[in-house]
Structure formats: C-alpha cells, structure tokens
Amino acid sequence: MLTEREIVATLEMVKSEHLDVRTVTLGLSLLDCAGEELAAVRRRIAERIQRTAGRLVSVCDRVAQKYGIPVVNKRIAVSPIAVVAAAFAPEELVEIARTLDAAARAVHVDFIGGFSALVEKGMARGDRALIAAIPEALAVTERVCASVNVASTRTGINMDAVLRMGEAVKAAAERTRDRDGIACTKLCVFANIPEDIPFMAGAYLGVGEADAVINVGVSGPGVVRKAIDRALAENPALDLGGISEIIKRTAYKVTRVGELIGREVAEALGIPFGVVDLSLAPTPQVGDSVGEIFQSLGLHGIGVPGSTAALALLNDAVKKGGAFASSRVGGLSGAFIPVSEDLNIAEAARRGILGIEKLEALTSVCSVGLDMVALPGDTPAETISAILADEMAIGVINQKAAAARLIPVPGKRAGERAVFGGLLGEATIIPVNCGTAENRFVRRGGLIPAPIHSLRN
Question: Band of the pLDDT at 268, cuts 50, 70, 90?
Fold first, then answer.
C-alpha cells in the first residue's frame, strides 16, 4: 500500500507532471485454440478473447477513477500466433489477424499483440508462414501488432530470419504507402525478447506464462524531469551520483503506483497479477519527453556528446528504483527513445543533432533499441536487414533486450516528415548510408554463433 506522503506526492505527479499508467495489458494464452480447421480456430480465438477480456476496459476505467490516476491504454497480448496457427498458410494467417483485430475492437482495447514468431535459432513452417503474412496482416488491420525474435544471447543471430524481416518491413511500408508506411509502426524485430512485455508493439504472452495474467506498463518521463529540476533548484551543485538517487526515488514511487493499479485490476477480473514494467515511454506532448531529461541533466539535447553516458545513468537508476519498489518488476523496464513518439527527440532528429549512428550507440544502454525511426522510402530491404542485424548484435553481445521498429516511408526522402498521428506522433526522416554495392553480408544467411559468454549453464 502507498503511504499518506506517497499519495500526496502521487496526486501532484498526476496533476502537473504527466504521470499515468500507460497500459494495462491482459496476457492471454491461445495455445488450446490451435487446430487444423481455420474456421474453428478463428471461432475459438474470438470467443476466448471476448469472454476473458470483455470486462477489461470497464474495470480499468473504474479503478482509474477510484484513484484519480489515468489508465491511458488497455491492451491484450496473446500467445505467439506462429505457434497457435502453425498449420496454416500465409493467407490463412491474414484471416486470423482479421479475427484478432475484430475481437480487439469488440472489447474496446487499443491494440492486440502476439502476431509473433520466435525464430532465434531457426524457422519452422508456422514461423515462415507468419513472417510472410506480416505485411498484409498489418496493412488490413488497425489494432494488431507483430513481433519477431530473431536473436538471443543463448543462440546467436538467425541471419536468414533477419533478411526476411528486412523484406517484410519494406513490404509492410509499401502496402500502407498512402499512410506513410504506418503498418511498420506495429512491427518490432527483437533480440532477447522478454515473455511479459505490456508495451506495444512488442507485447506477446510467452509460452511459459499462465493462461491469463495482468501486466502493467507505467510511464513518467515528465515526473522524472520535474524531480531533477526541483533537486537542482535546491542544490545547483548536485553531482551525477546525487541525481541518480533522485531518479531512483522517483522511479520507486511510480512503480508503487503501477503495482497498486495492476493488482486491483487483476483482483477485480479474477486474473493473476504479473509484472510492472516501469519504462519511461514518452508521448508527443510537451512535458512528457525523455529527451527533455537530457536537457535537465545539462546537455544541449539528446544526440550530443555525453548522451550515451546520460542515458546509461537514467536507465540504471530507473531499474534500481523499480526493483526496490516491487519484486514483480519485469517486461523491458528502463528508458525508451522512440524518435517519432517523443517531441524533443523528434526535434533533435529534425535539427540533425541525432542521426542513425548515434541512435544505434544509444541503444546499447537503453531498454529497447531503434524505436520508431523513419527512413527514406528508397532504402533497400538489404540495408534495412543490415540495420536490424547491427541492432540484434548489440542485444546479443550485451545480454539485453534489443529491438528495432523501422519505417521506410514510401515516396519520401531524408529531411521530409512522416506523420503517423496520435501517440505515434511524427518524425523527420533520417538519412541512411546505404553504401554503393550490394550488401552481400546479409545475404550469406546462416546463424551468427552465440558469444562465448552465453555458456553459463
């Protein structure tokens, strides 16, 4: 339970510092919906979602009203569809995506994740079919999100899958050419994907999870920035160690709020509570930006020298504060740097302070990776695959989750703007060094072996 002092501080965070529970995500197993008859599988999936998630939104709204803390998004994450629907061809998997989309709409959730495959060591029939289905599935649905795990520290990098995902990203963008390639905003390529992510587009329910579980994603970049600003106003000589302590204490409070809301929602639904994912996930609103934290720390903006060290400090302090507040911290937990979704980061990209190379360096210490990065529409699929491979290598070698959500915007060039709307925001298209020769490296395929430090059993 929260103490009286924590309640007062929390109310101030909600009132003026953009604190919210960014998402309550219902993880739902569909493994026993599997079968060989498409119509029957679709019917079982729809019935399972509507039966279990039918009260999710109303319960979240009631709990949010009770405590005065907004629950911004209500979402569902299901078992990897490549496993559930392994018997089907790509065109049939597109129909399953339509079923997921319709079920999500029926229960009024924002997104449903889990159109996913786990192919870090190899691809089975269902995996290949799902990857082939992704472009069309994301183009014809509004709420379905996809993720594919192509690498892990234990197994290495599946370069055959990386090449296919580069092609899938390119195809998904082309199928939504009239909307700046928006299908790609719902597609994440991962290394070391956790099984309990509540945030989209990477959310799915791992095969080691229960039948149903409530996971919560809490965000508060505005809260962290305000806390830093107050501390520096009181003590302008405060050093970085002292600032780290401020961030840790703030993360502690935010995590406590998330667990309070999550447990109450879970109890009301009769579903086990899973984890709190404390991630500084920004929005395009002023005052709700991770990029602004860099300025409070004393940098001109994200992307200038010192940015990687600042992000390392921020990410570590957030994780430590969350871990102290709850034994149920999970998901990704840390700091996100999505370019289009953060007004300050988008501006840094527009001004040329932040480029693809610096973004890649930052991903070595953040919680996710290359997130919501708009690329020129003529970027070859091979180059996209090569960028994915680089990001996967960062995750594999550093034993961390790493992901890429890349959007090659059809018909647009570097310096132009891509507009996605809502929480997805808009972004300046970042130039990419494609080289002048065919990228034969990514076409060699095979498995890049796991690093030596993977042998820890």
Answer: very high
